[in-house]
Amino acid sequence: MSTTLFNLQRDHLAHLQRAYSDILAKHELDSLAIYSGHASPHFGDDQSPTFQTYGHFMHWVGMDDIQHSWLVIQPGKRPQLYLYAPADFWHLPTHLPDEPWVAEFDVQLCPSITMPSLPGRAAIIGDIDRLDAMPAQARDALQHPVMLVHALDELRMFKTQYEIACLREANRLAMAGHQAAQAAFVGASAELDIQLAYLGASRQRESDVPYQNIIGLNQHAGVLHYQHYNLTTPKQRHSLLVDAGRRFRGYCADITRTYAGPDAPNMFHELLGALHTLKNNLVESVAPGVEFMALHEQMHHQLADILITHDLFRGSTKEAVSEGVTRAFCPHGLGHSLGLQVHDVAGLRHPDGTPSPAPEEHPALRLTRTLRPGMVVTIEPGFYYIPMLLEPLRSKALPINWVLVDSLAACGGIRIEDNVLITENGFDNLTP
């Protein structure tokens, strides 16, 4: 661990200590216990799915695989980490890294599952409903109080310099994977081979990825969360869409790239270039005070212009948006908050914790906030050939060039996604 990163992490922990002290004082609390969570086995089995540590626990510790452990925060005191570390010859015992930040905590290694005592008026947050039994010393504590959790969610919306450094490194590692995926596509690999190339170059196990990588060839590029990896290479290679990420100290990269194959029509090549330009235009529009909803609407207007310029729609920009044509070609939101979770917390709430839901006309939007310095968001415009969304338009008297639209069916879709930090004066694109 570099000295620079450790100094940033130490500042980050000091920032959390101050912020948590203020939040606990506001809620008249003397202590807060954060449960890391734990994996549960599949029904009728003794195997468990991949586990991810609770985000507010990870905000302090920066490790995404800690189970059955507790973190106790008290104003004016060092954070106390009760790390579950049983003697186990079946598995490698849990251990903390040999890094200087560990000295910022009072660490107690617990050979059995242990609930710490909580002084004063206390609260507990985390996945406590799945505990086998609530320990006696915790029964009087407030359990997962909603407004307290909303305040901690809001704290995570604004990244420290340490968090930004982690997000930047996660992006760097993920882009190495994307470059390998592109090379595998050029080499006529199957979806599974492309996935393995991505994992190898980004140096991670499949169980470590922050979300299931989307590796879609041809029509599969039009399935927004395509979930399979075919084992054979298709006879024709029209397109590849790779939506794949990487964690670094818990922080997530979420990057998407689309490539045209040797069998793609010229129109697909042109649209791919247009979507790159659209993504760049939207990134350059990111700034403090900008409403994310306004960026989302800008995406739809510019997407309408692309449809018109390429003779896919022969009406006006206003008509393409108002009649739902652009929503049929891009049904998802422009992006979302990014941090310890891929779709990070507080994106659909106001700063005071009250709801700020997506509007009825854009139900898939995951972020409705006004952009402020320190936020990190994704910018991911798309264009897809999705039959179930296009079919209702066919019965309407709309000036859609269906011959040209249908020529793109084999290509599936396009999505280009970068991770962007809002700065005091504008933006910093973290995706190299």
TrEMBL record:
Coiled coil: none
Recorded catalytic activity of this chain's protein: Xaa-L-Pro dipeptide + H2O = an L-alpha-amino acid + L-proline
Annotated Xaa-Pro dipeptidase N-terminal domain residues: 10-132
GO BP, sorted A to Z: proteolysis
Gene3D superfamilies per record: Creatinase/methionine aminopeptidase superfamily, Creatinase/prolidase N-terminal domain
One example GO MF annotation: aminopeptidase activity
Job of this protein: Splits dipeptides with a prolyl residue in the C-terminal position.
Identification of the protein by name: Xaa-Pro dipeptidase
Organism of this sequence: Vreelandella alkaliphila
Gene symbol of the encoding locus: pepQ
